[in-house]
Amino acid sequence: QVALVESGGGSVQAGGSLRLSCAASGYTSSNSCMGWFRQSPGKAREGVAGIDKAGNTKTADSVKGRFTISKDNAKNTLYLQMNSLRPEDSAMYYCAQARRPCSFYPSNWLSDIYFNYWGQGTQVTVSS
Q1: pLDDT tens digits, 51-74
Q2: Which 3 state secondary structure label does DSSP give 102?
Q3: Residues 6+ apart with CB under 8 A from 65
Q4: β-strands 18-26, 57-59 pairing
Q5: Three-class SS of residue 4?
Q6: If you ran DSSP here, which 8-state letter would residue 113 be given?
Q7: In the structure, what pLDDT confidence band is assigned to residue 31 with cuts at 50, 70 and 90?
Q8: β-pairing, 2-7 with 18-26?
Q9: Distance between CA 22 and CA 10 in Å, rounded?
Q10: ∠ CA(67), CA(10), CA(125), 5° rounding?
């Protein structure tokens, strides 16, 4: 089993920055596809950014140029650096891990249907 614990959320003003962290424990693998997702009330969960075993990343158009995903395999930790935050970025942010490498899935792998393990989420609120 895999346990994912997010931290780093909070309240910031528009234009500010936050860095989310996700500590993984249990049966983790640096080869597994990992990602960040977010969900706002009344909206579907959406993929924000993902990273494969080689460190290649995929980022949603809505956050491209502002958010950066990275990982530290030695620490089993995933990060999401969020800059130039906007009120529309407000959501619960979730860390997720798939059982397989990203290359195992179709090209649209940044979708929650491919991810098996989820953290409890961390709230991000951006005020204008």
Answers
A1: 998 999 999 999 999 999 999 999
A2: helix
A3: none
A4: unpaired
A5: strand
A6: G
A7: confident
A8: antiparallel
A9: 15
A10: 75
Question: For residue 15, is it left (φ>0), alpha (ψ between -120 and 50) or beta?
Answer: left
Residue with the two structure tokens 């909070």: 10
Q: In what order do the strands lie in the sheet with 2-7?
A: 2-7, 18-26, 77-82, 67-72
DSSP for 16-85 reads: --EEEEEEEEES--TTS-EEEEEE-TTS--EEEEEE-TTS-EEE-TTTTTTEEEEEEGGGTEEEEEE-S-
The partner residues of 79 in beta bridges, in order of sequence, read 21, 70
Please name the residues in contact with 38: beta carbons below 8 A apart, sequence gap of 6 or more: 45, 46, 48, 89, 91, 92, 93, 94, 124
How many other CB atoms are there within 10 angstroms of residue 87's CB atom?
A: 11
